[in-house]
Specification:
Elements: H1 3-9, E1 23-24, E2 27-28, H2 33-42, H3 45-49, H4 57-75, H5 83-112
Antiparallel strand pairs: 1-2
Helix pairs in contact: 2-5, 4-5
Length: 119
């Protein structure tokens, strides 16, 4: 896959609107500010895998809520967000998603009997 094909494939997951994206040295990021934050939140997965960070369903929900509220209020035209808020709420969403992945992984290992090498 070429660099252009990879970049173009991101159109399927993100709107990439210029006014909702960051720019670096005159070039637009391949994803919007919220997706940038979400991707950065994904980097928290090793913290969950090593049990440095653990979240229950309540905390996962609470971390996802700001992104949902920001996105919904913006979608319905009640207010306009900004890129730094989108980045922050996306970061919380990404961390929450990795917490959910970790919970599912723990559950799957308990059901299947696989050994968790990270505990």
């Amino acid at each position: 896959m070429t660099k252009k094909e990879l970049y173009d494939s991101m159109l399927n997951v993100c709107h990439r609107r210029p006014e909702r994206s960051f720019f670096w040295k005159g070039k637009q990021f391949p994803v919007c500010a919220r997706c940038t934050g979400t991707a950065l939140g994904f980097l928290s997965l090793p913290l969950f895998a090593l049990k440095i960070l653990q979240l229950n369903f309540l905390w996962i929900f609470l971390l996802m809520l700001p992104c949902w509220v920001d996105g919904a209020t913006q979608f319905y035209g009640w207010r306009e967000s900004n890129n730094w808020l989108r980045l922050g709420t996306g970061l919380l969403l990404g961390i929450a998603q990795m917490g959910l992945v970790a919970l599912f992984g723990d559950w799957l290992m308990s059901v299947t009997g696989f050994i968790n090498f990270f505990s």
